[in-house]
Queue: 2 jobs
Job 1
Amino acid sequence: MKRTLAALVLLSVSPTVRVSAQDRIAETQTVLSQLVETYGVSEAEGPVREAVKRLLPPWAKSETDSAGNLWVRVGQGDPVVVVIAHLDEIGFRVTAIRDDGALELQPRGGFFASLYEAKPALVHTERGPVPGVFVPRDTGFSRHTPPPLRVDVGTTSRQATEALGIKPGHTVTMPKRFVRLAGTRATGRSFDDRVGDAALLLALRHLDRAAVKHQVIFIWSTREEIGLEGAQGAAAILGTTPRRVHAVDTFVSADSPLELANFAVAPLGQGAAARALDQSSITPPAYVDSLAAVAKARGVKLQVGTTMGGNDGSAFTRYGVVDVALGWPLRYAHSPAELVDLGDVASLADLVQAVAESW
Amino acid sequence: MRSTSADRRSLKDSLPVVGGQALRVTALAGALLTAYPPIHLSAQTVDQLALRLSAMTAVTGLEQAMADSLLALVPGSARDRAGNVTLTLGGGNAGGGGPKRLVACPLDEVGYVVGNLTDDGYLTLRRVGTRAAYPLFDQQLEGQPVTVFGAGGSVPGVVAVKSTHLTRGRSAGSDPVFTADNAYVDVGATSRDEVRALGIALLAPVALTKRPHRYGDRLLAAPAAGRRAACAALVAAARAKPRVKGTVVVAFTVQSLYATNAGLGTVQALRGPFDETKQAALATRYTDTAVETVSLKDAEELERELVKWMEGR
C-alpha cells in the first residue's frame, strides 16, 4: 500500500515518471475503484463528476458546461482533438409513488431489467441513499422481460415514502462494489464507462504536456446512456473546430462462453481495443491504420475490431469531425457482473496518452 | 409477492440418519465466509445476530462453517455426528423432573456446488437442495456476483450473462428461464489449473455474494433471511439463561432441504423421544428470493416467545 501511495505521489509531481507493471495496475485500480463505487445514473452524474475533479492532476483546470460535461484543455493550436468518455451509468428513475408506498420506475439506458429483480435497491435522494428492494415478480416467469419493476422501501403508504425524502425524478440503483478477481481481473457495476473516465484521468496524470503540439480537449460527458445528450451539447459548442474525436467507451466483447464468436471477439488481457465499426460510427480505415501505428510506436497493446452499441464521438461526426473510437474489452456489459482486465485499462490509458502526445 | 410463513414441516417426520459427512469446508474458509467483523460473544442483540448469520452461507449438507460459528455463539453446545449443533438446557438427558422437549431451527439453505471446471477456467454448477419455491430461483444468479468457498478461503466471482448490446438485431429465441445448467462462474481465471491454484475443486460451495440489506423499519433482506433471523432468535433465547422447565434440547439442524432431512432425524434418533417439539420460524416476504425479507421486530418477539416456552410459561 505504501509503495502504491508513493507511486501516486510521484506521479502527481512528475508526470513522466515510469512505474513498474505492478504499480501501474495498482494505480489503475486506485483510480478506477473510486469511480466505480460512486453512483451516477444519467441526469444525476454530479457525484461522479466531483470524483473525477478530485482525481485530476493538480495542474489541470476544469470547467463544467451547461450540459454538465466536465472539460479540461491541454496544449494550444490546431488540429484540435477531443477525447471524450461518459460519466453516467444505467439505472432507473422514479416516475411515481404508489398508494401502497412502492416506487414505479423508468429504466435509464438499455439493459435486462431481470438482472435487478429481487435485488437490493438504493434510492438516491438529497438526504442520501434510501435502501429498499426491487420487488420480485409473482407472475410472468420468463427470462429477461419481467413486468415493470417496482421498489419497496419498507413503507405501506405514499405519505410514508414521501416522508423518507423520496420524490419522482430521483434515481435508483443497486449497491455496488469494486472487487479484484484472479490475476489482474476485476468486477463491478458501471465499468461502462468509468473505465473510460479512468483512462482519461490516468492519461492526464502521465501526460508530458511539453509533447502536446496542439490542443487536446478532455471531456467527461453526461447522459450518454440515454442518447448521447451531453456529447451533443459539447459537439454543438465546438462545431467544426475539432479535427478528430476519440470516444473512449466500452468495447463490448464476445470473449464469453455465452456469446456468438462471429464478431466482437476481443479477448480480455490483450490490450485496448479500437472500435473501428459499431452501431453509431465507422472509423475511416486510414485513421485506424494511423492509430495502430501510434500504438505500435509507443509499444501499446491494441486490438482492432467491431462491436455493438453507440459512442459519444458519433455526436461530433455531423460537424465533419472524424470519430476514432477507442475502448477496452468488457465482459457482461450493462450487468452487475461487468468484468475487465486491469492491464487492458492501463493499455487504454497509455493509448489515450499516446494519441494526445504524438498524433 | 404474497407473504408466506416460513417452512413449518413437522418435526415428527423422523427420518434415517446420515452420518459421517465429509467436512469439505475448512475452519479457515469458515472464518472467511463473511465480510463482517468477528462476533464478540457478549451483548449480541437479535438484530446483530440476524445480520451476522444472514451474511453467512450454509449450502445444505455443507453447513460446517455456519455450525462452527454457532458453536462459538452458544456456550455448552456440541456438534453431533450429522453436523447439527445441539445444546441441552435443564435436567439433561439423564432425566430429572418435567417433560423433555425439543426446539429446532434449520440452518441450511438451497445453494450450489462446483460441478465441473472448464478448460478455459470457468466453473459450472450443480444445485443442492430440494426446495425452490420461487420459480426463478436459479435465474437470480444470472449476471450477479457470487462467492466460491474454496479450500483456501472465499473466492469472488460472477455468473456470466450475455451483453445486452450483442443481442440487438439477433433473435432472442425462446429465451427460456435461466437454470443452474446455464451458469458459468467467472473468477478471473483463464485455465483449469489457475482455478485449482485458487483452492477451488469440485463440490466447493457457491452462493450469491451476501450483503444483508436493512431497509424500512427494522426489515432485513438477504437470501434465507427468515431462517437466519429465526436461528438468531433461538441463539439469543439459549444465551438468555432461561429457567427451563424439565429438559429442553436446542438444535440447529443441517440438511433440512435435502432428500431425507437427515439433520433433524439424527437429533430425534439420538436425543429423543420428545414430549413436545417446536420449530423456530418467522414469517417472510419475497420468500426464497435474494431479498427474502424478515422483520427484526418479529425476531425479537420470537426470542421472547422461545424463552417463555423454554420456561414452560
Note: The longest strand of chain B covers residues 100-106.
Job 2
Amino acid sequence: MAFGPDPERPDNWERQLKKGWLELAILASLWDEELYGLDILRRLEKDTDLVLAEGTVYPILSRLKADGLVSTKWVEGEAGHPRKYYSLTPAGRRRTVAMARYASGFLGSIRKLIAPVLAKEDK
Amino acid sequence: MMQSEKLQRKIDSYLAELRKCLGELPPEEVHDILQEIRGHILERAEASGELTEERLVAILKALGRPEEIAPLYQVDSIVAKARASFSPRVVLRAIHRWSHISAWGFALFVIGVIGYALAFSLALSGLGKIVAPQEVGAWLSPGGFNIGTTSNPAARDVLGWWLVPVGLVGGAITAVATTQLLRWTLRFARFRRPTGGTAAC
C-alpha cells in the first residue's frame, strides 16, 4: 500500500496537470481522421510537450476504448507489421466537444488570472 | 548480422518484461498490447535510418520502463471492466488492485470484504434455517445477539421462520448495495493511479 508521491514535488503537479490535458489532446488529434498510436504521438510531440513517457499514451488509448470514446481496428499495411488505428465514436465526438469547450473557457479565465503574475515577472 | 540479432534480442527482452508485468490481464488483451508496442518500437527504429544499439536504447527509454507502463494498463483495464460489471468477484478484484496504490482503495477493499462477508452469512443463515431449523436462528441471549448457531442454552430465537426471508432478502440487498457502493467509488480510482515505479513484477 502506498500513499502516493509527494504532491508538492514540482514534477508531480506538472505530471497531474499534463495527464488531463493529454487526454483531451489525444481525442482532439482524432477529430479529423483515424490515426494509429505513433501517429498520435508524433502529432502531440510536434504541437505540444504533453508527453512525458511515450508508453503512457497507449494505456490512455486503451482506457478511452474501454470507456467507449474511441474504436479500434488492426490494419495490415505497408509497414510490415499491423497497426492499430483509433477513431472517435459518436460518444467520443460528444466528449471531445464538451472537453474542448470546457478547456477553452478554462484557459481564458486562467490567462486572465495569471496575467498579473507574468507581468510582474517581466519587470 | 550479429548486431541486428543482438538488437532483436533487446526488443524481445523488453517485450517479455512487459508481458510479465501485464500478467493478470486477459491473454488476448496482452497480445494486443504487445503487438502495438512492438509496432511502435519497429517503426521508430525504421525511421531512425540505420539502427544502432544506442538508438534502440533511446527508443526504449522514451517509451518508458515496462514496470512503469504495465500498471497503467492493469488499473485501466480492470477498473473499466469492474465499472460495467455486477459480479462481486470482478468488482472486488478491481478494488483490490486499487488498494495496492492508494489508502482509499485499501479502506474500500476492507469495506467490500466486510460487506460481502455479511451478505454471505445472512444468506447462509436464511438457508441454514431451512436445513436445520432447530440449530440456526437469530439468537438473543443475556450475552448479546447473534445470527447463526448458538451454544448458549438461555438464548431465545427472536425471528423464528422469519429468518429465512430476512436472511435471503437481507443478504441479497447487502450484496447489491456493497457492489453498487464499490462500483460508484471506482469512478474516482483513476485519479489515484501511481505515477510509476510502484509495481512489483
Note: The interface with chain A takes residues 32-33, 35-40, 42-44, 62-64, 68-69, 72-73, 76-77, 80-81, 99-103, 106, 190, 192, 194-196, 198 of chain B (CB under 8 Å).
